[in-house]
Amino acid sequence: MSTQRRRIDTYLEQLLDEDRFAFYRAVADFGDSEIAPHLLGWEREHRLVPDDAIAKMGEMGLFGLPIESEYGGQGGSQLDLVLMGLALGYHSHSVAITPGAATSLGSKPLQLFGTEAQKRAHLPDLAAGRRMFVFGLSEPGRGSDAANPEVKAVRNGNGWVITGEKCWSTNARWASHVVVHALTEPSGRKGHRSTCFLVPMNARGVTYGEMGGKMVWRQSSTGSISFDRVEVGDDAILGALNGGFKVMAETLNGGRLFVASLAVASTAFALDKVATYVQERIQFDGKAIGRFQRVQDVVFELDLAVEQGLTWLTHLLGLYAKGTLTREQAAKVKIACSRRASELLLEAMEICGGVACLDEFGLIRHHDDLFVTRVGEGSNRALMSQIARPLLPDIVKDLQ
Ligand SMILES: Cc1cc2nc3c(=O)[nH]c(=O)nc-3n(C[C@H](O)[C@H](O)[C@H](O)COP(=O)(O)OP(=O)(O)OC[C@H]3O[C@@H](n4cnc5c(N)ncnc54)[C@H](O)[C@@H]3O)c2cc1C
Question: Can you name the CATH fold of 7-132?
Answer without folding.
Answer: Butyryl-Coa Dehydrogenase, subunit A; domain 1 (1.10.540)
